[in-house]
Amino acid sequence: MSLEAIAERYRRFAAKEAAGHSPFYEAAAIAVADDAAILANLARLPEGKQQPNLLFASLRHRFGLAEDIEAFLAPARNAWSDLAGVMLTRSTQTNEPGRCATLLPLLANLPQPLALLEVGASAGLCLLPDRYGYDYRIESRQHRLLPTSASTDTPVFPCDASSGTPLPTRLPQVVWRAGLDLNPLDLSRPENRAWLETLIWPEQQARAERLRQAVGIAREDPPRVIAGDLNRDLAALAAEAPREATLVIYHSAVLAYLSREGREGFRQQVQAMDAVWISNEAESVLAVEGFAPQAKGLLFVTLQDGVAIARVDPHGKAIRWLN
Q1: Element (H, E) at 161
Q2: Is residue 265's pLDDT more than 70?
Q3: CA dist 202 → 28, 34, 175, 217 (Å)
Q4: In the chain, fewer beta carbons within 10 Å around the N or the C end?
Q5: Which residues of 204-216 are buried (b: 16+ CB within 10 A; e: fewer)?
Q6: Is the pTM of this model over 0.90?
Q7: DSSP string spanning 206-243?
Q8: Residues 155 and 135 sit within 8 Å (Cβ to Cβ)
Q9: pLDDT tens-digit profile of 89-135?
Q10: Contact 94, 252 (CB under 8 A)
Q11: What angle do CA 209, 211, 212 make, to 5 degrees?
Q12: What percentage of the chain exceeds 90 in pLDDT?
């Protein structure tokens, strides 16, 4: 990727993703786009490792969060080999459990019980939608849902919903769950927990606290996440699901990392299975028709079996039902 193409990637991140959510990352991305030395260093990495979220998380993970942009970005110029080592060995496995708030209306409407299979599961936090609490807001109305085991340590995910959203009246009944990931994160390792926290943007402290609570729940009863490729190993894992349950194969912010051929191969494979397919991705990832123009902040489109169902915030903070 050329230096100008990398710069444009960072400007686009600042304008479309960070603006309104993280002033610090918005300013940092703009600064990177104007810094020839940092752009040249990024150009030495594989294209998939040049992304803003990975650069900024790696800087924080290795050097901490400086008070000003210049100090924060300095290691990207003067400690590049050290920083590049982190970027080459880590990936943006954000594993945002808040996405369960926008998945829940679909999961709750399916025939119960459910067998959940998440591809790109990272540490498996999105495999636990029945163990979290939810606080939906429709205009001035509140709709709150908590598991029976709720305590002060249970994360409660806020979500602004449109009036047409079919809010669940009870949590789904999950009888089997498993995840598939190229590099599963073991939450018993402190460095993996620290990495997940550095993927939370600096200003989003409430989100970071809910992540820590979700990690605590997952560590008490870790969901099974196996190492594997979604196009090579999906069928074998899906075959383990109990036949009496509705098999749900789902993913969030995963297919962007596949080639066009890889995405098409996955689509054909999952649609041939006896399963419900829920895709939660940026609208550019899968070609879909029949949904409303993009609303501010709702950068993801949620599909069920290839049909657009909702526009959602990438971190699960809002949902706009389309049908």
Answers
A1: strand 156-161
A2: yes
A3: 12, 22, 36, 23
A4: C
A5: eeebbebbebbbe
A6: no
A7: HHHHHHHHHHHHHHHSPPEEEE--TTTSHHHHHTTS-T
A8: no
A9: 998 887 899 999 999 999 999 999 999 999 999 999 999 999 999 99
A10: no
A11: 65
A12: 85
